[in-house]
C-alpha cells in the first residue's frame, strides 16, 4: 500500500483540518486541531461549553479566520488567501442554534431568496426546489407561514430546508436543538437522521448523546481548545479512555 500524502488525504476528504489554531487577543481558543471528515461521514463534536466547538465550526467556513493552520473543504484549501471564500461557503450548509430566518418573509420566501440571489435561479425553479425541501423536513403546507407563526422546531426545520435548497456538499450544525423546548427536539433530530441516512456529510456539535450514539460514525470530544479523544460512539461515549471525557459524560448523560 502506498502512503497517502497529507495533500492527497486533504483532497479526498470533505473537511480536513491541520494544525488549526485560533486566538482572540491573548485567549487561545483552538490549540492545534487536526481532524478530518470523509465524504458521507457523520461526525459529532461534543465537549463542555467554552471548549471551542463553535469556533472550530466557524473556522471551517471562515466565519472566523484561523490564526494558524490549514482548512481544506471538498478539495479546496479555504485558508489559501487566493480562494474566493464566497464560492466555498456556497457549498457548505450551516445550521445554528438560533434559526436566523428572515422574520418578514414566509417559509417559502426564506428558502427562495438565497437561491435566487446567490445561485441566480429563476422564481419557478427556486420555488419548486423550496417546496421539495419543505416536504423533506415535514413542512408541506407551511409555505405561506411566517417564522413567528411556527414553533421553534418548525423554524429550525425551515432553516435546514433553506440550507438544503442551496445543494450543499456538506452540512455544519451548531447545537441545532439547544434552543428548543424538549418536546420539539425529536422532530429536528429525525430530519437530521434522515439526512445522514441519505448520505449527507455532516459535522454536528451537539449535546444529544443518544443522537451521537445512533447516528454518528465518529465522535470527537473537545476540551479547552484541543481534541482529547475521538473514535466510534461506542468507544468515546460508551467506553471513554480519558478522565476529562468521563467527567463530561457524567454531567450530560
Ligand atoms: P463552545 O462552542 O465549545 O461553547 P466557543 O467556540 O463558542 O465554545 O468559545 C470558545 C472560547 O472562545 C470561549 O472562551 C469564548 O468566550 C471565546 N470566544 C468565542 N468567540 C469569541 C470572540 N468573537 N471574541 C472573543 N472570544 C471569543
Ligand atoms: Mg458553541
Automatic annotation (TrEMBL):
<dbReference type="GO" id="GO:0015426">
    <property type="term" value="F:ATPase-coupled polar amino acid-transporter activity"/>
</dbReference>
<keyword id="KW-0029">Amino-acid transport</keyword>
<protein>
    <recommendedName>
        <fullName>ABC-type polar-amino-acid transporter</fullName>
        <ecNumber>7.4.2.1</ecNumber>
    </recommendedName>
</protein>
<keyword id="KW-0067">ATP-binding</keyword>
<keyword id="KW-1003">Cell membrane</keyword>
<keyword id="KW-0472">Membrane</keyword>
<dbReference type="InterPro" id="IPR050086">
    <property type="entry name" value="MetN_ABC_transporter-like"/>
</dbReference>
<dbReference type="InterPro" id="IPR030679">
    <property type="entry name" value="ABC_ATPase_HisP-typ"/>
</dbReference>
<dbReference type="GO" id="GO:0005524">
    <property type="term" value="F:ATP binding"/>
</dbReference>
<dbReference type="InterPro" id="IPR003439">
    <property type="entry name" value="ABC_transporter-like_ATP-bd"/>
</dbReference>
<dbReference type="InterPro" id="IPR003593">
    <property type="entry name" value="AAA+_ATPase"/>
</dbReference>
<dbReference type="InterPro" id="IPR027417">
    <property type="entry name" value="P-loop_NTPase"/>
</dbReference>
<dbReference type="InterPro" id="IPR017871">
    <property type="entry name" value="ABC_transporter-like_CS"/>
</dbReference>
<comment type="similarity">
    <text>Belongs to the ABC transporter superfamily.</text>
</comment>
<dbReference type="GO" id="GO:0016887">
    <property type="term" value="F:ATP hydrolysis activity"/>
</dbReference>
<dbReference type="Pfam" id="PF00005">
    <property type="entry name" value="ABC_tran"/>
</dbReference>
<keyword id="KW-0813">Transport</keyword>
<feature type="domain" description="ABC transporter">
    <location>
        <begin position="15"/>
        <end position="249"/>
    </location>
</feature>
<dbReference type="GO" id="GO:0005886">
    <property type="term" value="C:plasma membrane"/>
</dbReference>
<keyword id="KW-0547">Nucleotide-binding</keyword>
Amino acid at each position: 500500500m502506498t502512503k497517502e500524502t497529507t495533500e492527497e488525504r486533504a483532497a479526498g476528504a470533505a473537511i480536513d483540518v491541520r494544525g488549526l489554531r485560533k486566538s482572540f487577543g491573548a485567549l487561545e481558543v483552538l490549540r492545534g486541531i487536526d481532524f478530518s471528515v470523509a465524504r458521507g461521514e457523520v461526525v459529532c463534536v461534543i465537549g463542555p461549553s467554552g471548549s471551542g466547538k463553535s469556533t472550530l465550526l466557524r473556522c471551517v467556513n471562515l466565519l472566523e479566520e484561523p490564526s494558524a493552520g490549514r482548512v481544506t473543504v471538498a478539495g479546496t484549501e479555504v485558508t489559501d488567501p487566493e480562494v474566493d471564500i464566497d464560492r466555498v461557503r456556497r457549498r457548505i450548509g450551516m445550521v445554528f442554534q438560533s434559526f436566523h430566518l428572515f422574520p418578514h418573509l414566509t417559509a417559502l420566501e426564506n428558502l427562495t431568496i438565497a437561491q435566487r440571489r446567490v445561485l441566480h435561479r429563476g422564481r419557478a425553479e427556486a420555488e419548486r426546489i423550496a417546496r421539495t425541501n419543505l416536504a423533506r423536513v415535514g413542512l408541506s403546507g407551511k409555505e405561506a407561514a411566517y417564522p413567528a407563526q411556527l414553533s421553534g422546531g418548525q423554524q429550525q426545520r425551515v432553516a435546514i430546508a433553506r440550507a438544503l435548497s442551496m445543494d450543499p456538499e456538506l452540512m455544519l450544525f451548531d447545537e441545532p436543538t439547544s434552543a428548543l423546548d424538549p418536546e420539539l427536539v425529536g422532530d429536528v433530530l429525525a430530519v437530521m437522521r434522515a439526512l445522514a441516512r441519505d448520505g449527507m456529510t455532516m459535522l454536528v456539535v451537539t449535546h444529544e448523546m443518544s443522537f451521537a450514539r445512533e447516528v454518528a460514525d465518529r465522535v470527537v470530544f473537545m476540551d479547552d481548545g484541543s481534541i482529547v479523544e475521538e473514535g466510534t460512539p461506542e468507544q468515546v461515549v460508551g467506553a471513554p479512555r480519558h478522565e476529562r471525557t468521563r467527567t463530561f459524560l457524567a454531567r450530560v448523560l
